Amino acid sequence: MLSWRMPHEALLEAANAAFEKLGGASSEARRYFVPGRLEVLGKHTDYAGGRSLLCAVERGICFAVAPRADDRLHIVDAGRGREAELAITPDLAAASGHWSNYPRTVARRLARNFPGPLTGADVAFASDLPSAAGMSSSSALVVGFFTALADVNGLERRREYAASIRGLEDLACYLGTVENGRSFGALEGDRGVGTAGGSEDHTAILCCRAEQLSQYAFCPTRHERSVRLPPQWVFVIGVSGVVADKNEAAQDAYNRAARTVDVMLQAWRAATGRTDACLADVVASSPDAAERMRDILRDATPAPFPPRMLLGRLEQFLAESTEIIPDAGDCLARGDVDGIGLLVDRSQRMAERLLGNQVPETIALARSARGLGAAAASAFGAGFGGAVWALVQARGADDFIGRWAEAYRNAFPARASQAEFFLTRPGPALRRL
After folding, report:
1. What does the CA dihedral 377, 380, 383, 388 come to, rounded to 10 degrees?
2. Do 73 and 86 form a contact (C-beta atoms < 8 A)?
3. Of the residues 107, 202, 375, 395, which has the maximum number of CB atoms within 10 A of its CB?
4. CA distances from 342 to 292, 366, 376 (A)
């Protein structure tokens, strides 16, 4: 059985060595381990106010941080040997499509939301998360850089912080808005990184617990329950090698699912005069609200999406958030791990047919895993590439990895060099080391 361990020695050593290149003594650095996350269920539900079933993973990013005497942020990526230097100012330019856009976005938003002199930092990081694979490596960067700058500046003691951010769930919501550009209470938004996501990733990174799967609902973020994953089971992650990169050219595809929800809300508000803030609030507004929304979408022609697409998106949201996730949690709570297989199969089919965010490689990985005996398997994350999880017995996990990897590489030989397969149990949230 796998159990959580501290970031492996090589990751720490890489972050320390990179930090010393910045001129600091690694013994004086503050260190954090920021995990990636696994979206067990909850495909495009969070920004619509729906549910997700989540855990952190055992892989992540190790940060080494020290304050500077100026307002500069000097960064070294130990794994790729990349560096960036920028000022923490409210008018800091974006760098769309470049890795430094994530720390730039954090620095700009903090300068806008917490005015006055801000202390800069030397930051080195090392990661063993597969990049652009749907495991929230980008959100982990956002959380890590915010943690670094908040720490060296004592942001928790600031009036603006205390008035809006009262705990980890609030912080996850806020960091979701840092990434998507929206405002959070009195903390005014800006352009973000260019993707219209929610706070699911940040919630898993900050709030999930080791060995447990956590069910959260969103808008606002609230914990509903946690269920321990039985110790004889483990997740195998299959990274497809199809890069799920959120660069500017790919953002339209990522944001389409969010825009359909916005269009549905606009149609609902126009037809009813109500001001429900999210799709989950619409559904909860009355016993017949879902059917009324169907009628509105059938009769309306809200551009730029046809009614058929909007109706499909509504059905996917309703099934995922109100049926599949609660039922899967119930199965886990009673120890019926095998029972979640059919529920997860349904979620995967809807992602393929109604969300339209799957590629041949992720479809094949999910089906192959089930054919090889996985209790459940699903693609996860924003889609259009990325990875698939498979739930398997720990005692046969190594053999499963070999067979799953071989089947995938035989089916998609062009992806063989980029594909990756590894094990994880649910890990802890962000840790200060």
Report:
1. -40
2. yes
3. 202
4. 29, 13, 8
Q: Give mean pLDDT, residues 106-120.
A: 96
Question: How far is CA 105 from each of CA 5, 126, 186, 187, rounded to the nearest angstrom?
Answer: 31, 20, 18, 14
CATH code assigned at 48: 3.30.230.10
pLDDT of residue 246: 55
Phi, psi of 127 (to 5 degrees): -130, 145
Is the pLDDT confidence value at 80 over 50? yes
pLDDT over 70 (residue 272): yes
Taking residues 266-279, report their average pLDDT.
96
Structural domain that includes position 55: 9-228
Q: Name residue, tokens 């500046």.
A: 153
Pairing state between β 431-432 and 30-41: antiparallel
Phi, psi of 408, deg, nearest 5? -70, -45
Q: Which amino acid is at 203?
A: T
User: What would the mean pLDDT of 343-355 be, rounded to a whole number?
Assistant: 97
Across-strand partners of 379?
388
Report the candidate in 193, 181, 198 with the shortest Cα–Cα distance to residue 245.
Answer: 193
Nearest Cα neighbor of 168 from 212, 108, 237, 216 is 216
Q: Which two structure tokens, joined as six digits, stand for 362? A: 């992720």
Q: Is residue 415 part of a domain?
A: no
Total structural domains in the chain? 1
Q: Is 402 inside a domain boundary?
A: no
Amino acid at 149: L
Q: How confident is the model over 5-19, as a mean pLDDT?
A: 80
Which of 1, 39, 376 has its CA nearest to residue 211?
1
- Name the H helices within 99-153: 101-113, 137-153
pLDDT of residue 302: 63
What does the alpha-carbon distance between residue 238 and residue 53 come to, in Å, rounded to a whole number?
Answer: 19
On whether residue 111 sits in a domain, the answer given is yes
What is the pLDDT, as a whole number, of residue 7?
Answer: 54
Tally: H helices and E strands in the chain: 14, 12
pLDDT digits (tens, 9 = 90+) for 172-200: 999 999 999 999 999 999 999 988 889 99
CB atoms within 10 A of CB 353: 12
Angle of CA points 331, 336, 338, to nearest 5°: 105
Q: Does residue 2 surpass a pLDDT of 80?
A: no
